[in-house]
Structure formats: C-alpha cells, structure tokens
Design a protein that fits this description.
Strand content: 5-15%
Structural class: alpha+beta
Radius of gyration: 30 Å
Number of strands: 10
CATH topology of the largest domain: Multidrug efflux transporter AcrB transmembrane fold
Shape: elongated
C-alpha cells in the first residue's frame, strides 16, 4: 500500500515558490532603483565644479589670497576677455563695433572695460568681469558674448572670447558629452565584446542592464553627497565614474557568469547552479572590489580636493557594481535559467568546457613546463619598457593645452598673446601689509616677466582693508603658460623678501602652480599608502605573505612598463605637450588596484586548486579555467576606459590610453605568463607562512572528469 504523503511536499513547494519570488522581488527592487537613479543622470552637472581654485586645499597660498580678496570686493569676479583682431589694422567700423559690444556687455557683467587698443593697432580687448560665484550664469554670459560677437561683425574682423570665464565655459561644454556620447560608446563597445564572448544575444543584455542599474544607484548616491557638499564632484570624476561602473560591473559579471556556466554543466537546477557559483565567486569578487575600493579611498589622503572627491565617487561606483553583481545578476540568471545562454545552452555532462579551454590549456602547459624561462623572459621584456620611464613628462601643461580640439578660448588666448601682454585679464594678485605697499610694488615691477603692477583703488590712495593692500601684476606671458608659472615663483620670492610685507601671491597662474605642487606631493604620499593597504588585504585574503609580495611586485612592474611605453606614444606618436602630475597618480591607483583585481581572480582559484592538486598543478588548472574569462574582463575594461578618449580633454585621453594599455598588458602578459610562472617556480612556498605553504606534497586529486576542483 502506498504510504501517505509526508509533510515535506508543501515545504518543497514553498521552497520552489520562494526560489522564484525572491529573485523576482530583487529584480523589481533594482528596477525601482533604476527608475529613481536614472532621473539623476543628467543632474550631476548641476552639482559639479570645474574651477581649479575650488580643488586646492585651504592651506595653499592661492587659496589664502582668494579668501583675503573677498574683503576687498563684495563679489568674486571672473573675467572674460573679448579680443578683436584685423591683420591689416583696425578700421573705424571695427572700433565702433567693439564699443557697441562693450555697451551690450554691461547687461551681462558686473564690470566692463572700454575697448583697450594694442600698440600695433591691430587688436582691441574688452575685459568683461562676470560674477564668479555664479558659474552657470558665467557660462551663459560667455555664450551670449560669443553670439553677440557674431552679429553684424564687419567683414575681415576676427573676434574671440577668452579668459578664465571662457575656459571654464569651454571645459563644461567638453564635459557635456559625458551624459550622452560617452555612455553610448561605452555601452556599444561592451555589448559587442560580450556578444563575442557569450555568443548569446540575451546574456549581454542582462549584463548591460546590471551595469546600468549599478550606475543609477551610484549616480543617485553621488548626487546626494555632492549636493550636500560632502564630496567634491567635477567633470573628470563624473566621466571616470561612468566608465568605472560599466567596466567593474561587467568584469564581476563575467566571473560570476563563467562559474555559473561551469555549474550548469553539473547541475540541472539553475537555482542550485547560481547558489554554487555565488559560493565559489563571492569571496574573490568581494575581495577584488574591496581592493579597488581601498585603493581609491587612499585618494582621501590627497591635498587636492579634486583627488579627494574622486576617491569616494569612484569607490561608490565600485560598491554599486558589486551590489548589483551579487543581487540583481544572480536573480536574473535564476529567472532566465539556461535560456540566458541561448542558442548555446549548457547541458549536464557536456564536455564543451574542455574544448573551450583548449587554448588556455596549451598556455598553462607551456608555463608549467618552463616556468623559470617564462618569467625571466617576460620580466626582461617589461624592464626594457621600464627603461623609457624617464621620458614620461608629468610636470604640468598650460591650461589651454587641456583641450584636444579647436576651442574659441584657446584661439583667443593665442591672439591676445600676439598683441598684448600675455597675462592681460588674468593678473597675478598680491596681498601685502599696507605699510610695505610701495616696497612690494617696486619689488614686483623688478621681476622679469611682470609687465605692469597696479593697486586696487588709485595709485595715490590704495584701498586698505584690515591693514592690507591688494595689487594686480600683469604678466608678460600667457597666464597658463610655463613661463608665467616661473614668473609667479620669482614674484613670490621677490615680494616676500620685502621687510614686514607678509606678502602672498595668488590669481589664476598661482592657482595652477599650487595645484601642480600639491599633485606632485600627492604622488609621494599616496603611492606607498596604496601599496601598503593592498598588501594587507591580499595577506588577509590569501593567508600568506609571499604571494601578496609577488602580486604587488608584478603589478608595479606592469605599471612602470606601461608608463615607459606610454611616454613613447605620447611624445612621438600623439605629440602631447606633457601631462599633469595627477595623471601618473590616477593611472597608478587604477592600474595597481585593477591589476591586483585580476590577480585575485586568478590566485584565489590557484589556491582553491592547490588544496586539491598541489601548487604547480593547481596553477595550471586555474590558468586553464580562468584564462578566458579574465582576459575577456580585461578587454572589456580596456574598451570602457578607451571610451574616455571620445571627450576632447587631454587629461582624460591620457588616462584612457594608460589604463586601457596597462590593463591589456596586465591581463595578456603579466597575469597570463609572469604570475603563473613565478608561482609555479616558487612552488608551495608561495603560500608561506600558511599551512598550505608547509605542505610537502599534494593530497590525492579530488576533481570531476574535467580536472577542475569542485567547490561549494
């Protein structure tokens, strides 16, 4: 007689229902986050600042001068300069046109100068002082000035709008492509790569949706923090946030999906396969994300507000990517089941995995057969690239070199420098004790590169506020040029030497100088901190000391080789004028953190396999299994960072090349050859001082028919 049904059947049904309801609820919750966060995509520009002075620390001399200037004027003024030029000499119609533009500009500005003629009679300049506290209003005013200059302009007369206000406006316009063009290029690049990797039209869509939802969450959090002045946001950090989220979310998805597909060859239930895949990958994915987050948060030790802002902004992006990968993506995979891989659905017992790993099996076999020869040859090749490192120029560039395309403010600055002192409209500002005013003025005039020195107020009765006077020193060279920076250095030395002056020098050029000085200081401070933090994380994750040293050493070598080869490309192929000191710092943080990221994916699998098969065999098996997915992840990340090059900004183009090239070098050479060869050659001592490092021989193999260890 058939026994009555047990009470486990309803429980089983409830479990089955839960396995569908829980993933569905997670997907719905994330779609809700996407709906809310998506509305903030276009609002980030409202809470960002692209003014260099705002990035400086409070202790910088230029910042102190900016603060003291507020006592001399009720408003912070930001000059725009309208320059009129005719090669054959200005006509009466040209002068009348300039006067008319001067009158029209009074409706836009706080102060407007009359047209100032050049000595050669070929140019006029009009200084339009805008409200510096209203960045959006200043940008609109620059746009209006440019439109006005085009109306009824005499034939043959060239008109440009330049100066600090115009530079800020052009920078904002360049960054405006982040919300549209950059996202489209990134999404298309990632989609194409995923189509090649997965050979499925549905799975790339799921991964892209996961990345997009992660970006929505990150944007929502960043907007709230920036609006509350908790973090500083600028166009550069906004662009890097978008790229980093797409790259990281796709990388983590590749690792999870790869392991999920492995499990589908063993398990019939997609729920069980996802659970096993999560159990096997949650540690390396979380550790990798934690390493990148820790490296990025080291930027909080920077003295530049822009760097300190990028740290938490990018860290929020990585955290959102991790959360989406560990919640939304598994839920979506459970709901889709094997259909996610259509038309190549994994079948239980299929041996397709072995065929897919064929290339990497041959690479792993070659490394295992000749480990010492492999790592020696690879190291020597990288050291040859490192030899070009001294050619990497990162002492700073002119502000007008920021743009890669033709920009009106840059063209105007060139015209201004041909007919007027280069620093016209952007003078150095000197604040000094009133009792030493005459001596400070004389000392400033004696400095080479200073064209003129004037007091605020009148020469006979300078304005005195709280016992201080303000002077403006017009420089001979363009305010953003290297020569002007050298002049400001000399100017500071000269005015400080006046007894009792307590003089300080600020202004646009001084701001540029202090920014470079602070960025150079950050290089020496942050790099050791990043290395120490990452070493601690790796030591805790791998429960070893030798392996973390090997991983960090290889990544640093890869970074140095990247800089060396990039120097050749920047100097001799792309013809870049140089780089800002923050470029190698950002490249270091991204490449070291992301390089260790990929090594974590590999070495955690090596350790897993070594527990069953020993270090040499475990390394070979791990490289065979992870080679394809990690290389695919590197290609995806390189493609996403390359998308930054669509924005016509020198800094972003350099970061795009450095990170993209560095990631490819790391994944294709360092992680595929150097690291496995070193671990194989070092052997079990790689894991010292853990018990695995002291184990004399490997235990008997315990794997499935494909030769990979089972976990979870």
């Amino acid at each position: 007689m058939t026994p009555p049904p047990t009470t486990r059947a309803p429980s089983t049904r409830r479990a089955r229902i839960l396995r569908r309801v829980l993933p569905a609820l997670l997907v719905v919750a994330w779609l809700g986050i996407g709906g809310v966060g998506g509305a903030y995509q276009g609002k980030l520009s409202d809470v960002e600042t692209n003014d260099n002075a705002a990035f400086l620390p409070a202790s910088a001399e230029a910042t102190e001068v900016a603060r003291l200037r507020e006592t001399f004027a009720e408003q912070q003024l930001l000059p725009a300069i309208v320059v009129f030029e005719r090669d054959g000499g200005l006509t009466d119609a040209d002068r009348a046109f300039a006067v008319a533009r001067s009158e029209a500009a009074k409706d836009l500005a706080e102060q407007v100068s009359p047209p100032i003629p050049s000595e050669d009679g070929r140019a006029l300049q009009l200084v339009v002082a805008l409200d510096g506290a209203d960045e959006e209003g200043s940008v609109e005013a620059v746009s209006t000035l440019r439109e006005s200059a085009r109306q009824d302009r005499p034939d043959g007369l060239t008109v440009h709008v330049t100066g600090p206000a115009a530079l800020v406006a052009d920078l904002g316009e360049a960054f405006s492509g982040i919300d549209g063009l950059l996202l489209v290029v990134t999404a298309v690049a990632v989609a194409l790569i995923l189509l090649v990797v997965y050979r499925s039209p549905l799975l790339p869509l799921v991964v892209l949706v996961s990345a997009a939802l992660a970006l929505c969450l990150a944007v929502l959090l960043v907007h709230q923090l920036a609006a509350a002045d908790v973090i500083a946001l600028n166009g550069q950090s906004r662009g890097i946030l978008f790229i980093l989220v797409f790259g990281a979310a796709t990388d983590y998805a590749l690792l999870l999906v790869s392991r999920y597909r492995e499990e589908l060859y063993r398990e019939r239930s997609s729920w069980t396969a996802v659970r096993r895949a999560l159990r096997a990958t949650v540690a390396p994915i979380t550790a990798s994300a934690g390493t990148v987050i820790a490296g990025l948060l080291c930027l909080l030790f920077s003295d530049l507000n822009s760097n300190r802002g990028l740290g938490p902004v990018a860290a929020i992006g990585i955290a959102a990517s991790l959360l989406a990968c560990l919640t939304f993506l598994p839920a979506a995979l459970v709901l889709l089941g094997r259909a996610a891989f259509w038309p190549f659905r994994p079948k239980v017992g299929d041996d397709r995995r072995t065929r897919e790993h064929g290339v990497w099996h041959r690479v792993a076999d070659a490394v295992r057969t000749r480990p010492r020869r492999t790592w020696v040859i690879t190291t020597v090749a990288l050291l040859v690239a490192v030899a070009f490192l001294p050619q990497f120029r990162a002492s700073g560039t002119a502000q007008t070199d920021t743009f890669l395309g033709d920009v009106d403010s840059v063209a105007g600055q060139e015209v201004l420098g041909e007919h007027f002192p280069g620093g016209s409209g952007s003078p150095a500002v000197i604040i000094a004790a009133a009792g030493s005013a005459a001596g400070v003025a004389d000392a400033a005039r004696a400095v080479d590169g200073v064209a003129d020195v004037r007091f605020t107020g009148s020469p006979e009765q300078p304005q005195v506020v709280d016992g201080r006077v303000e002077l403006s020193a017009t420089l001979t060279d363009a305010a953003d040029s290297p020569a002007a920076v050298d002049t400001v250095r000399a100017l500071r030395d000269a005015v400080r030497a006046v007894p009792g002056s307590d003089a300080k020098v600020g202004g646009p050029t001084a701001t540029q100088l202090d920014t470079r000085t602070t960025a150079t200081r950050d290089l020496g401070v942050i790099i050791p901190i990043v290395l120490a933090v990452i070493f601690l994380i790796l030591a805790l994750l791998l429960r070893a000391l030798v392996a973390p040293l090997v991983l960090i050493g290889t990544v640093v070598l890869s970074f140095a080789a990247t800089l060396g080869l990039s120097a050749l490309v920047f100097n001799h192929v792309l013809g870049f004028p140089g780089a800002d000191p923050s470029v190698p710092l950002f490249a270091f943080v991204f490449l070291v953190a992301l390089g260790v990221d990929y090594n974590i994916f590999l070495v955690t699998r090596v350790r897993e396999e070594a527990l069953a098969h020993g270090t040499a065999e475990g390394t070979s098996r791990a490289l065979t299994v992870t080679g394809g997915v990690i290389t695919s992840a590197g290609v995806v990340l390189a493609a996403t960072f390359s998308a930054l090059a669509v924005l016509p900004i020198l800094f972003l183009a350099q970061i795009a090349f450095l990170v993209a090239f560095g990631v490819l070098l790391d994944t294709l050479v360092v992680r595929s050859l150097l690291v496995p060869a070193l671990i194989t050659d070092i052997g079990r001592r790689t894991w010292l001082p853990s018990a695995l490092g002291r184990r004399p021989t490997a235990p008997p193999p315990r794997g499935d028919e494909t030769g990979t260890a089972r976990t979870g």
